[in-house]
Amino acid sequence: MSHWPVSIRKQWFVAARSDRVRGRPLAVTVLDLPLVLGRTPEGGVFAFEDRCPHRQVPLSCGRLTAQGLQCPYHGWTFGGDGKCTAIPGLAPDAAPPSISAITISCQEHHGLIWVRLAAPEAADGDAFAAPPSSMTRGLPGATSLQWQAYWKAPVVDAIENFLDPLHTHTLHPGLVRRGGKRSPVDVAVRLTHEGFRVDYRGQEEQTGWLYRLFESPRVSERAVFAGAGSARIEYRYRNGSAIDITLHFTPQASGATHVFACMEVSGRWAPRWALYLFILPFLSKVARQDQHIVELQAANKLRFGTGGSVSTALDLVTPYLASLWQPGAPFCRESFERDVVLYL
Questions:
Q1: What angle do helix axes 155-163 and 280-304 make, rounded to 10 degrees?
Q2: How many domains does the chain have?
Q3: For labelling alongside 333, which of 80, 194, 234, 321 has CA 20 to 30 A away?
């Protein structure tokens, strides 16, 4: 855990989908720290370090009771605030001692559970009081499709893959774009108060099967990054409809990343069953191709070492991600914010 910089530990990460945290405690690992998630009888969510302060047994192996999360070893129980509520064996009139599980900041938004590992006093006041607002709300009235994956790759490589349109011709030929069909696209890169955005203008249509089967002429395409690991591709169409694809990247360890994905469709016919039946197979194939190449990249870095990677002006988001995840890496706002032409 110590190798993660404090600036990253202050950030919020998605730990689980809300529907995974119900009647049982759930074990997760974020930034190498084992956690347990659970719900109070009222339905609120909480997160602790996954260890009982008594004998260090995993609390995730316990059970949820009316009094809180009960350790499977001696039955010590902890309420949603972490305070010990019961110790079996104490005299009936004895109050439980002032012992607590180690609590982790936890919030629930739009079907996801977010955690922040840094202690509240280390989170710079209100700057990190909540997850990025742009990533905790969805399209009004949208139909949504959720899925998740586990990639054996560093988080930065996974994020960069999602935000990089230039690989789509070779890695997803025919699905996203066709390799022989490139045209100039105006690209504007700008910083925001939560991260950055990249606007693409001049490509109302794409050449791949995903567009041809499920889309229509676009008004705009935008990539948005916020916090430390959340990114979204936003498509807006002439007919007033919209599609958002959001991915939250959460490091389990330095070489392992959980990917929580959501696709939302608004303003067009898209019942949930149709998304699962017709669109998910295509998206799953694209995701498997991305996972394969990023895991291949990670394995090769282990063979040769991480040095030697070359970047060009086409690698639009690389400087920001490097400065975020590697404190001290050079970053210049003036050179990052720019207008370029890419051939997509």
A1: 130
A2: 2
A3: 234
203, 286: one domain: yes
Interval 179-199: pLDDT, tens: 777 899 999 999 999 999 999
Structural domain range at position 182: 139-304+315-343
Query: Is 219 in contact with 243 (CB distance < 8 Å)?
Result: no
Pair 208, 289 in one domain: yes
In the chain, which ranges are E strands?
Answer: 12-17, 26-30, 33-39, 45-49, 63-65, 68-70, 77-78, 84-86, 103-109, 112-116, 143-151, 184-191, 195-201, 218-226, 230-237, 242-253, 256-266, 338-343
- Answer yes or no: are the C-beta atoms of 131 and 109 closer than 8 Å: yes
Q: How far apart are CA 286 and CA 292, in angstroms?
A: 10
Give me the amino acid identity at 136: T
Q: pTM above the 0.90 mark?
A: yes
Task: Enumerate the H helices of the chain as residue ranges.
Answer: 6-9, 155-163, 168-171, 209-214, 272-274, 280-304, 318-325, 333-336
Query: Which of 97, 128, 159 is the last residue in one of the domains?
Result: 128
Q: What is the DSSP letter of 120?
A: G
User: What CATH number does the domain containing 203 carry?
Assistant: 3.90.380.10
Q: What is the pLDDT of residues 300-314, one digit of tens each?
A: 999 998 676 888 889
